[in-house]
Specification:
Layout: H1 9-13, E1 19-23, H2 27-38, E2 42-46, E3 58-60, E4 67-69, E5 75-76, H3 80-89, E6 95-97, E7 101-108, E8 114-121, H4 128-136, H5 142-149, H6 167-173, H7 178-193, H8 202-211, E9 222-225, H9 229-232, H10 234-243, E10 247-249, E11 254-259, E12 265-270, E13 275-277, E14 281-283, H11 287-293, H12 296-302, E15 312-322, E16 331-334, E17 341-344, E18 357-363, H13 367-370, H14 374-388, E19 397-410, H15 414-419, E20 425-427, E21 430-432, H16 445-465
Parallel strand pairs: 1-2, 1-14, 2-10, 7-16, 14-21
Antiparallel strand pairs: 3-4, 5-9, 6-9, 7-8, 11-12, 12-13, 15-18, 15-19, 16-17, 17-18, 20-21
Length: 466
């Protein structure tokens, strides 16, 4: 086999102990590399794709010339690790946060008409922001507001006590009426956990609530990218890495992680049979990829294959180009619709070259549509849009583009949560990172950024302090 270690100037020009390979150039890998570079190490990122950023990237639609994202990625104001990363990349100004949590709904009434209602939570400290939510929101009935108050004790509950419950059971335990589940809890859970209330982990929902809505108004404001995701993460990351002499190997597919007799990682092998010597490794790849790379004896040591059933959840993104506007608001939650959320991309996103109005529909926990053919999804869009935008003429719809990510995130279910309890250090010189490791967070950009930073810190402490 050929060795490509000599091609890396870092391996010949720096102390071996300072060179740390990072497998995967997504948000976790980028975060780890930025952290390591700050401390004087020499990260080497190996990425199978031609771009960094993982699922958070943008590309050009060839027909219209407009730049669109692979999927809608919202940030929350409590994403402290993501904000740290954006500060380092100097792209934090490209995220616009709400001054207070505001979610406009479109709701079809019994007469077939459409009503606009709003959920609002002012950015006050807990619990005053919730008082404001109940007073300022016209979304809830009096009965529903009382039911929301019944959930306040979740702020002080130990999530571990509810590890055996699914979210639907938790909501019934806290006396949440079906009307409130439909209009509030289902959109919140499916967006935050990318899993239905029938499957999602109650303990993970409690952790999420405690870090956002039940923490205080300023921690649950939504942040919207003002430009394409590649301009926020991948492109500025490459610029940052050039400054710190971080090596990036793109389009390199690793097929094996090899260990020596002492149980330490010592070599990576790519799909061409070439060898890459490794002193330290951060594996920042999805679990389903990592499983294929590890020797069977290493995998069996840390996971029980008989009980391991890692399941994934899809996300469907649908872009619409229209000749006339559907609406001018920034976005809407479509109550009771298969389409869930619709965003005005002339407000958030771009850059755009065409003269069309551009909208993006996002369907989280998209099991019903994720496995359907594109033509069927387009049919659903054409059936659903007139229900919420009756004045829009369908002949003004220029183009539909469907983007399906069948394995967008792991399911936030009880078995997957148990699988996350694995230690992040598989050996003295190999650390795991990614949104799927135990971060106490859903499978989000924030979870990925946190895991990458923590993996880097783990190695930094080991190398500096032994």
């Amino acid at each position: 086999m050929d060795s490509i270690g000599s091609r890396n100037p870092l391996l010949s020009g720096a102390a071996v102990s300072q060179v740390i390979h990072i497998l995967g150039g997504g948000i976790a890998g980028i975060s780890a590399a930025v952290r390591l570079a700050e401390f004087g190490f020499f990260p080497v990122i190996i990425e199978k794709n031609k771009h960094l950023g993982g699922r958070a990237y943008s590309f050009t639609d060839k027909e219209t010339g407009d730049e669109i994202d692979n999927g809608q990625h919202l940030l929350m104001s409590n994403y402290q690790h993501t904000q740290w990363l954006l500060e380092k990349l100097k792209t934090g100004v490209q995220i616009e946060y709400q001054t207070e949590l505001t979610i406009p709904y479109l709701i079809r009434n019994r007469m077939g008409g459409v009503e606009k209602k709003t959920l609002k939570a002012p950015a006050y400290p807990f619990p005053f922001h919730l008082v404001g939510l109940l007073l300022k929101s016209d979304l809830f009935t009096r009965k529903e507001k009382i039911a929301l108050v019944d959930c306040l004790p979740l702020k002080w509950k130990d999530p571990a006590r509810y590890r055996s419950l699914i979210v639907k059971e938790l909501l019934h335990l806290f006396n949440q009426p079906e009307s409130l589940i439909d209009k509030f809890w289902i959109p919140f859970v499916e967006s935050a956990l990318n899993t239905s209330i029938q499957n999602s982990s109650a303990s993970l929902l409690i952790k999420t609530l405690q870090k956002s809505i039940l923490k205080g108004g300023k921690y649950c404001r939504m942040g919207f990218p003002l430009t394409g995701l590649s301009h926020i993460f991948a492109d500025p990351a490459e610029k940052y890495f050039r400054k710190f002499n971080v090596k990036i190997e793109k389009n390199m597919v690793i097929s094996k992680i090899r260990f020596n007799d002492r149980g330490e990682v010592n070599m990576l092998e790519d799909d061409k049979g070439r060898e890459i010597p490794v002193s330290y490794l951060i594996a920042a790849v999805p679990f389903m990829h990592l499983k294929k790379l590890l020797p069977l004896q290493v995998f069996d040591k840390f996971w029980n294959p008989e009980n391991l059933q890692y399941e994934y959840s899809p996300i469907v993104s649908i872009y619409l180009w229209t000749k006339k506007p559907l609406f001018h608001d920034p976005f809407f939650c479509l109550q009771g619709s298969k389409l869930q959320w619709i965003f005005n991309k002339r407000v958030f996103g771009g850059p755009y070259k065409s003269n069309y109005f551009i909208y993006q529909i996002t369907i989280s926990a998209g099991d019903l549509l994720g496995n359907e053919p594109v033509m069927y999804i387009e049919k659903v869009v054409k059936e659903e849009l007139p229900k919420f935008f009756p004045k829009f003429e369908m002949d003004q719809l220029h183009k539909i583009r469907v983007i399906k990510e069948k394995k967008a995130t792991p399911l936030s279910n009880i078995p997957n949560e148990k699988n996350r309890d694995i230690k992040i250090d598989l050996s003295t010189n190999m650390i795991l990172a990614g949104d799927w490791v135990q971060t106490q967070l859903p499978y989000t950009i924030e979870g990925a950024a946190q895991s990458g930073i923590e993996a880097a810190d783990h190695l930094i402490n080991a190398l500096f302090w032994g």
